[in-house]
Amino acid sequence: MRVHVVSDVHGRADALARAADGADALVCLGDLLLFIDYADHSQGIFADLFGAERATEYVRMRAAGLMEESRQMSAALWATLGGDPREHIERAAREQYARLFAAMPTPAYLTYGNVDVPALWGDYLRDGHHVLDGQTAEIGGLTFGFVGGGLRTRYRTPYEIDDEEYAAKVEAVGAVDVLCCHIPPAVPGLLYDVVARRFERGSEATLAAIERTQPRYALFGHVHQPLAARTRIGRTECVNVGHFRGRGRPFALDL
């Protein structure tokens, strides 16, 4: 059996529609939404609402670590639209989710990324879409465990949760053959983004679970240009499945 795995789709509905070609099932590790494109500032919700020039300035501030300044800029821009900013974001997110879930192949096993809005997914799921978070599923005779979302950071993305809540989901999954998470285990080489030149947050709880239970594979995304795309922890092969928005092709797992 062949399973294709994607992560960090960030709006690529065109490539997503072909992501399961030649596979028996698709696994999606989240980050379906594109709020802002750090490579092409004309793309994403922010640019759609405020234009590429404003998006470029916003990216520059965040890249420089000027988080408070970027929030002040963002707040001023949202104020020009009137109403609750959350309503504008939800409307734009719904438009993206409608396209993405229409393109999502079946069967697909999905968990959330840190930029996703879990409360909206239920409105767009189709038969054959299975959403799991802190849960397991049998695929090809193996047990896959799924842990979605990210840990809290200064970026305040929509689905960041406390370390304790995240660890509880890892514990709930237990021993599995394939551990599927959006964020990597807390291994420095897996966490450093060589283009953004920063460490992303990884999970100590996931690392401890891998060391303790030794699944065959630990699959994840989140870090778009990792220093190390894969490593081994004991018998476990840890693999960053790739930045799907940038690559447009899945990671193939033959079971």
UniProtKB/TrEMBL annotation:
Protein name per Swiss-Prot or TrEMBL: Metallophosphoesterase
Domain Calcineurin-like phosphoesterase: 1-226
Pfam families (alphabetical): Metallophos
Any GO molecular function: hydrolase activity
Database matches in InterPro entries: Calcineurin-like_PHP, Metallo-depent_PP-like
